[in-house]
Design brief:
It contains 14 helices and 22 strands. An eight-stranded antiparallel sheet has the order 13-12-9-10-11-14-21-19, with helices on both faces. It has helices spanning 11-23, 63-72, 89-97, 107-114, 116-125, 141-151, 174-192, 249-265, 297-304, 308-316, 399-412, 422-429, 432-435, 445-452; strands at residues 4-7, 27-33, 47-52, 77-79, 101-102, 155-159, 168-171, 197-201, 207-215, 221-233, 236-242, 270-278, 284-290, 333-340, 342-343, 349-350, 353-354, 357-359, 368-373, 380-381, 388-396, 414-416. It is of the alpha+beta class and 453 residues long. The chain folds into three domains: 4-103, 3-Layer(aba) Sandwich (Rossmann fold), CATH 3.40.50; 132-201, ATP-grasp fold, A domain (Dna Ligase, domain 1); 207-452, D-amino Acid Aminotransferase, Chain A, domain 1 (2-Layer Sandwich), CATH 3.30.470.20.
């Protein structure tokens, strides 16, 4: 096992990794920017190193500074968390060059899955069903127009190097396709340094379903069930739950087995998430694979009892998985709300500043809650980073209990000094569509449009 790990991230996820390391008896090195010098999570690490000014490009994306900190502090491994360098194949490769274990998949896997069209081709060959569309990148607009006519409108133009909801444009007809094609290429080039696009049939009123997998270097690959991630605004997830109300136990077992077998075939290592779109007929189509820890991993941990971060570290240290597929059992239901420092009633305007009151909800039932956060009272939110300040997770013996538990907890959560998305979460949880589990990726679009006006 490793003696010391550098955590190449900040805030909530950095603290999550630090806690997992402590449970394994591993020392941690936290890195921080000048803007995060007073971040509460730093006190939980054994060592801390400043890696640059506030802007991400000068700190949390500064490979040289992070690698130098890891080497100088005699670390054996680096955990990237999520975001920043977590899915950067060059960073994973440079860790290997420095004799540092990158806690995640191999650099080649990150590269292949980071190219969305190549990922689609790779996992199609491994046996997963894929959304009808281009087999690889589009050559030009004429290629796109011919293919769109074949699969039928509406279609999506998507950046092959995309992520985070960027570089995606829906097209309802050929005129929209021809108008969007150059704009989408320009957006992709600007955001990712790669203008390549691919095309997919747009699945309307679908479900965003993702399967959590773990794979070790001994040929073992398992799934931990699926998560429902259809409550999104501008392709950014707001609420996740597990299990999905749209997935039957039969489909879970069948597709989960197929997913685990597929990642095993391609030699994938460590934790990953295989994402699908489910159409109105209940058919699942592979969309992309995230080669990292997911923000929403706690809902899976709550219903399986599996510590995913702990397993990541053990796999990276060349240990076998601590459980087999037959050992995975699902207990109850879990829901996660991502609480952001934003004003949902002012076009989701960011709300940085000082938190004057931060009183988390107690376990007031009927189920249990978990709070993942680094935030404390009087903490000042920097302006440079993502607006998420915490994740609230509710677990119940069934979905109705989980919803009631989450609602109770959100109502009791006191955060003052800034605006948060808590009122929006309560509004969504109260809708008939959510309570009955009859929602999809388009259900709350009108609500978000109204709030943005």
């Amino acid at each position: 096992m490793f003696k010391r790990i550098l955590v190449a991230n900040r805030g909530e996820v950095a603290l999550r990794v630090i806690h997992a390391c402590k449970e394994l008896g591993i020392e941690t090195v936290a890195v921080f920017s000048e803007a995060d010098a007073e971040s509460p999570h730093l006190k939980q690490a054994d060592f801390s190193v400043c890696i640059g000014p506030g802007p991400s490009k000068d700190s949390y994306l500064n490979m040289e500074a992070i690698l130098a900190a890891a080497v100088n502090k005699d670390c054996q491994a680096v955990h990237p968390g999520f975001g920043f360098l977590a899915e950067n194949s060059e960073f994973a490769y440079r860790c290997e060059q420095q004799k540092l274990t990158f806690i995640g998949p191999k650099a080649d896997s990150i590269r292949i899955m980071g190219d969305k069209s190549l990922a689609k081709h790779t996992l199609k060959e491994a046996g997963l069903p894929t959304i009808p569309g281009s087999d690889g990148n589009l050559r030009d607009i004429e290629h796109a127009a011919k293919l769109a006519q074949k699969v039928g409108y509406p279609v999506l133009l998507k950046a092959t190097a995309g992520g985070g909801g960027k570089g995606i444009r829906p097209c309802g007809n050929e005129a929209e396709l021809r108008d969007s094609y150059p704009k989408c290429r320009m957006e992709a080039e600007k955001a990712f340094g790669n203008a390549a696009l691919y095309l997919e049939k747009l699945i309307q009123r679908g479900h965003h379903i993702e399967f959590q997998i773990l794979a070790d270097s001994y040929g073992n690959a398992i799934h931990l069930g699926e998560r429902e991630c259809s409550v999104q605004r501008s392709n950014q997830k707001l609420i996740e739950e597990s299990p999905s109300p749209a997935v039957s136990s039969e489909v879970r077992k069948k597709m989960g087995r197929k997913v685990a077998q597929s990642v095993g075939k391609i030699g994938y290592l460590n934790a990953g998430t295989v994402e699908f779109l489910m159409d109105a007929d209940g058919k699942l189509f592979f969309m992309e694979m995230n080669t990292r820890l997911q923000v929403e991993h706690p809902v899976t941990e709550m219903i399986t009892g599996v510590d995913i971060v702990r397993e990541q570290i053990r796999i990276a240290a060349n240990h076998e998985l601590s459980l087999k597929q037959k050992d995975v059992a699902f207990d109850g239901h879990a829901i996660e709300c991502r609480i952001n420092a934003e004003d949902p009633y002012d076009n989701f305007k960011p709300s940085p500043g000082q938190i004057t009151k931060f009183v988390p909800p107690l376990n007031i039932g009927p189920g249990t809650i978990r709070l993942d956060t680094h935030v404390r009272e009087n903490y000042k939110i920097p302006t440079f980073y993502d607006s998420m300040i915490c994740k609230l997770i509710a677990h119940g013996k069934n979905r109705a209990v989980a919803i009631e538990t989450m609602t109770n907890a959100l109502k009791k959560f006191k955060i003052e000094g800034i605006k948060t998305t808590i009122p929006l979460h309560l509004e969504i949880l109260a809708t008939e569509e959510f309570r009955e589990g009859k929602y999809n990726t388009e259900t709350f679009v009108d609500m978000f449009k109204r709030l943005s006006e």
